[in-house]
Amino acid sequence: MKNYSNSSGIFAPFGGLVVLGFFLFFIFLPSIIGAFAVPYTINTWLVFVGKQPAVVWWMGLLICLIPGAGYLSVLTSIITWILMLFL
């Protein structure tokens, strides 16, 4: 009977690195998206109320390191874009 387990395979030492890679990917992907979405959203509303745009990309990246904020930033930027079509 063949052993189909990867625990004794050639890629076994890389198992932890793969898990770490996926973890970092799902942590930093929303942050990278948020680096564009958060400044767009906040600066659009600042300009709408007559203030100077003040948020830059790295501020959006830091904000989106909070779990869930990166995914919400996409939703809020879409809502902002739709509202700005009519306001």
Query: Major β-sheet, in short?
Result: none
Structural class: mainly alpha
The radius of gyration computed from the alpha-carbon positions, rounded to a whole number of angstroms, is 20 Å
What is the residue-mean pLDDT, rounded to a whole number? 85
Q: Per the principal axes of the C-alpha atoms, what is the gross shape?
A: elongated
How much helicity do the residues have?
55-70%
Low-confidence stretches: none
Proportion of beta-strand residues = under 5%
Cα distance spanning the termini: 69 Å
Topology order in helix (H) and strand (E) letters: HHH
Number of helices: 3
Instruction: Please count the beta strands (DSSP E, at least 2 residues each).
Output: 0
Structure summary:
This protein has 87 residues and is mostly helical. The chain is built from 3 helices and no strands. It has a domain at 32-86.
Q: What is the element layout, followed by pairings?
A:
Blueprint: H1 15-48, H2 57-63, H3 69-86
Helix pairs in contact: 1-2, 1-3
Molecular structure report:
By secondary structure, this protein is an all-alpha fold. The chain is 68% helix and 0% strand. It is elongated and about 55 Å long. The model has no long low-confidence stretch (mean pLDDT 85).
